[in-house]
Hints:
Blueprint: E1 7-15, E2 18-25, E3 30-34, H1 37-51
Antiparallel strand pairs: 1-2, 2-3
Bound molecules: zinc ion.
Amino acid sequence: MTMKHQISVEPEHRGNxxxxxxxxxxxxxxxxxxxxxxxxxxxxxxxxxxxGDR
Length: 54
Ligand SMILES: [Zn+2]
């Protein structure tokens, strides 16, 4: 059990009141342009699960 992969989700303003969400991991992995906060959190969890497997 390691806690190396710490995900943070950041909203990014795209204009006209629209936002996308970025998922950034403390290891440097970065996923951006997700359409909802939930999707960004899910991407983060998916990353953690994959990285934590070994
Ligand atoms: Zn990571």
